[in-house]
Amino acid sequence: NEPVIVIVGRPNVGKSTLFNRLTRSKTSIVDDAPGVTRDRIYGEAEWNGKKFRVIDTGGLVPNSQDLFEAAIKEQVEIAFQEADAIFFVVDGKSGLTPLDIEIAQNLRKFTKPNFLLVNKADSPELEIIKNDFYRLGIEKIYDISAINGRNLGDLLDDLIESL
Ligand code: GDP
Ligand code: MG
């Protein structure tokens, strides 16, 4: 069976953009409006000849602020049930938010590899933006760009090694 990577994170951090890049598909809908991805989406990916499945949980996060808590619990539940590794995506441009902290707390009991991806770090000088996120207490932290692919090679090398 192929390993499963579950992408979690609050709306608008770039989960679907990352999913599309990993799966080279347009299956996942990317939009500026938070919560636009309606369903849980599965895709196939491959790195250095190793195949894995990717799940974009973005569709579970509704537009309504009130429902965020329940939706995030659901994201995390899917991750616990299905993931061999988690890609927890945060937005390096907007910095750490209370929702990021809540997701990190919910993920604490996950015993398999958990990669914290500080996205929207489109150029090397933005590497510093990840400093804000060390306090989430997640060891594997990467500044990446889902849009231009920056540092995704290093991330996927480490992912494959950890599976
Ligand atoms: P999701 O709600 O987490 O699935 O986020 P999306 O993938 O829909 O992206 C939300 C917005 O962030 C879109 O306007 C994307 O173009 C933008 N975005 C995603 N990844 C990056 C990135 O690496 N760099 C920059 N600058 N913008 C990004
Ligand atoms: Mg999405």
UniProtKB/TrEMBL annotation:
GTP 1 binds at residues 9-16, 56-60, 119-122. It comes from the Bacteria. Residues 3-163 form the EngA-type G domain. GTPase that plays an essential role in the late steps of ribosome biogenesis. Associates with the 50S ribosomal subunit. Belongs to the TRAFAC class TrmE-Era-EngA-EngB-Septin-like GTPase superfamily. EngA (Der) GTPase family. This is GTPase Der. It comes from Melioribacter roseus (strain DSM 23840 / JCM 17771 / VKM B-2668 / P3M-2). The lineage of its organism: Bacteria, Pseudomonadati, Ignavibacteriota, Ignavibacteria, Ignavibacteriales. The chain holds residues 2 to 164 of 437 of the full protein.
